[in-house]
Amino acid sequence: MVISLNTCLGFVCLLLCHWVRTASPLNLEDPNVCSHWESYSVTVQESYPHPFDQIYYTSCTDILNWFKCTRHRISYRTAYRHGEKTMYRRKSQCCPGFYESREMCVPHCADKCVHGRCIAPNTCQCEPGWGGTNCSSGEFPPAVVCLGMFVLEGPPCLQITLSHGFPSSSLCRMCCGFLDPTQRYNFLSICVCIVYRTEFRERYLG
């Protein structure tokens, strides 16, 4: 009965060990997760036939031993020993070009995306106005010349910049024409906010 109990406990431990080894925090349904089967060894308790010398008696003509003779033969009994068992598990890991972050596989860009984000292996998605392989070069330098007009910077230009989808860090100039140059803070003018050489015309009450 003791042997049977030990066998059951060993089997339960084996199952638990197998479950722990095969558990993976990565979601195998994630297209960025790759998997493969690998073998590993575990120590198990196994039974085997153990030989021993069995003594038995037979009838014979030996009168001195009351016609009983001793005989020997090799018999086997069940014994137990520790052995190695090969098992297989499915191991998940991030596919090439991805790395694990918070139990997810995210793309890796060898060259850091300066003004953008990494959307695929070594592929950056740049913010508006930025380009290059790592989003470090401005695609359209901001125009700074306002021919025959007054250069206005600050909140009005910033509001127009944001309303057209440019980031707040965008460089812009608002070029305004005045009805009366002497009343520069009390007039109705037509302003052109220039961001990355793109003009956005707005009426601005100065």
How would you describe what is shown here?
It is a single-pass membrane protein. This is Multiple EGF like domains 10. It is found in: Cell membrane; Membrane. This protein has about 210 residues and is mainly beta. It has 3 domains: about 1-25 and about 35-90, no CATH class; about 110-135; about 140-205, no CATH class. It is about 15% helix and about 50% strand. It is built from 2 helices and 12 strands; from the N terminus they run αβββββββββαβββ. It has helices spanning about 1-20, 155-165; strands at about 35-60, 70-95, 100, 105, 115-120, 125, 130, 135-140, 150, 170-175, 190-195, 200-205. It has a 4-stranded antiparallel sheet, covered by helices on one side. It has a two-stranded antiparallel sheet with strand order 1-2. β1 and β2 (about 70-95) form a beta hairpin. It is rod-shaped, with a radius of gyration of 42 Å.
Q: Please mark out the parts with pLDDT under 50 across 5 or more consecutive residues, or reply none.
A: 1-5, 17-23, 140-152, 183-190, 196-206
Which structural class do you get from the secondary structure elements?
Answer: mainly beta
Rg calculated over all Cα atoms: 42 Å
Q: Helicity, in percent?
A: 10-25%
The gross shape turns out to be: rod-shaped
Largest beta-sheet characterization? 4 strands, antiparallel
Order of helices and strands: HEEEEEEEEEHEEE
Mean pLDDT: 71
**Count of structural domains:** 3
